[in-house]
Amino acid sequence: MAGVAPDVRIFPDLAALSEAAASLWVAAADQAILVRDTFLVALSGGSTPAMLYGLLASSPLREQVDWIRLQAFWGDERCVPPEDLQSNYRQARDLLFAQVPTPPANIHRVRTELDPDQAAEDYARVLLQYASGGLGWPRFDLVLLGLGEDGHTASLFPGSDPQPAGAALAVTAEYQGRPAARVTLTPAVFNSAREVLFLVSGQSKSQAVADVLNGAFRPDDLPAQRIHPAEGALIWLLDQDAAQLL
Ligand code: 6PG
Description:
Helices cover 27% and strands 18% of the residues. The chain contains 6 helices and 9 strands, in the order βαβαββααβββαβαβ. It has helices spanning 14-36, 50-56, 88-97, 116-129, 187-190, 206-214, and strands at residues 7-11, 39-43, 70-74, 76-78, 142-145, 168-172, 181-185, 195-200, 233-239. The strands form 2 sheets. A 6-stranded parallel sheet has the order 1-9-8-5-2-3, with helices on one face. α2 (50-56) runs parallel beside α3. Bound molecules: 6-phosphogluconic acid. 6-phosphogluconic acid binds next to β4.
């Protein structure tokens, strides 16, 4: 890995990993709201964060977050209708935002009713409205990311453009039968975040975890290696199965 060595934390199982992620979410929200009166978060998709969303939507954690000061974005989105079960927006809406008082205007889904390129341009315009520090996008207080068995993260896949310009782009990728057309934030956006959390669970990810964290630096094959915030925390939350080859 290039850059600062990541903070790798290993847990017995997904439940313990999710509880740790929830504690980090609460702490990041508290700090951001204390200092800037807002909490800017980019959610990930896939199955791994589902338990985390459920924990945050339930007592006691639900009462520990100032939800009305949260601005929600997605690190990537599948280009499917928002009601589609494959939608990353729909997953977070149903598991989390339907249970907490975050105003709908604070929930910034990718407008997948547009064609992918237009959706990416539209999303970049929304991100610009929350930009800070001379960036063309918000400096996220917290970014959640997953890891694919092929070393991808968000929708940054092997062989993709190493340094795409701008904040968001439309991509096409085949992975585990998931929707191929996607919109993803770019590495520059992730790397400007204050805190990036990877949540990785399961034996099927163990080789990718070992390759990304301990293997040679080859980000074209392992795009997750492109993620190392310049001035932010990089924390990998792994369960024992995902960490077994470290
Ligand atoms: C997506 C995600 C993707 C995901 C990884 C891991 O839209 O699918 O953003 O990057 O995080 O593929 O997915 P799982 O958590 O389902 O293993």
